[in-house]
């Protein structure tokens, strides 16, 4: 049975002011994946703590809060992880058609060594016990919850003027070994964090012709799945 005192604890439900709404949407629409444009300026501990606290306030199934945050600042460790990235990136190049490889190689896809802070966000799938409220019929909900934490952090970082880059071109096993992550813990995101002096007006991959943003109207279906037009 839920604790009645907790269930009765309500706060202010007033809508945001126009200025507050504008600030929220500005963070959403101007959020970018920063790949290599980090400044050497360090991220203060109090600012990093605010970002992690924003992540920690993400919604989570069954309130299990499955995330952990591995903060990496050591230059030698970042250099090692950079080498893991370079190995995986060479594999990735070969996966694309020959006509795309030159454009792929021109993209700056990581800032592991330039960003003053690297952050690995994980999901402990055992947290909350064997049966978790809300996860009884969809075992992936803890993973989705942790991705919400990533998004919270990313939007907070945008508001703080800090760029974030998500490095996904890594072998999980190699990264797990480099950071001593237990086998039952899933790696969700490896992020680079640091101050930047500018953001792309559009996503970099769109600006450089890799892909375009899909029209929203083509992605909305009414009542049931429909064949895309």
Automatic annotation (TrEMBL):
GO molecular-function term, one example from the UniProt record: 5,6-dimethylbenzimidazole synthase activity
InterPro entries assigned: BluB (IPR012825), Nitroreductase (IPR029479), Nitroreductase-like (IPR000415), Nitroreductase/BluB (IPR050627)
Enzyme superclass (EC): oxidoreductase
CDD domains according to UniProt: BluB
NADP among keywords: yes
Keywords, ordered alphabetically: Cobalamin biosynthesis, Flavoprotein, FMN, NAD, NADP, Nucleotide-binding, Oxidoreductase
Catalysed transformations (reactions): FMNH2 + O2 = dialurate + 5,6-dimethylbenzimidazole + D-erythrose 4-phosphate + H(+)
Domain Nitroreductase per the UniProt entry, residue ranges: 28-195
The enzyme's E.C. designation: 1.13.11.79
GO terms under biological process: cobalamin biosynthetic process
Subunit and partners: Homooctamer.
Membership in a protein family: Belongs to the BluB family.
Protein name: 5,6-dimethylbenzimidazole synthase
Gene: bluB
């Amino acid at each position: 049975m839920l604790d009645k005192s907790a269930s009765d604890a309500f706060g202010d439900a007033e809508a945001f002011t126009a200025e507050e709404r504008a600030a929220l949407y500005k963070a959403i629409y101007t959020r970018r994946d920063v790949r290599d444009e980090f400044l050497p300026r360090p991220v203060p501990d109090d600012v990093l703590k605010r970002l992690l606290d924003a992540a920690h306030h993400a919604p989570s199934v069954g309130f299990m809060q499955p995330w952990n945050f591995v903060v990496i600042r050591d230059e030698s460790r970042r250099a090692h992880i950079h080498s893991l990235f370079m190995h995986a990136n060479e594999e990735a190049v070969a996966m694309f058609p020959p006509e795309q490889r030159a454009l792929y190689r021109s993209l700056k896809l990581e800032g592991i060594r330039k960003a003053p802070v690297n952050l690995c966000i994980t999901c402990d799938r055992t947290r909350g016990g064997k049966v978790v409220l809300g996860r009884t019929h969809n075992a992936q909900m803890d993973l989705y919850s942790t991705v919400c934490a990533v998004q919270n952090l990313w939007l907070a970082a945008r508001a703080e003027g800090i760029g974030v880059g998500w490095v996904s071109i890594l072998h999980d096993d190699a990264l797990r070994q480099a950071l001593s992550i237990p086998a039952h813990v899933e790696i969700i995101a490896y992020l680079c964090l640091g101050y930047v002096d500018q953001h792309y007006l559009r996503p970099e991959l769109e600006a450089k012709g890799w892909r375009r943003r899909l029209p929203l109207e083509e992605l909305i279906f009414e009542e049931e799945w429909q064949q895309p037009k």
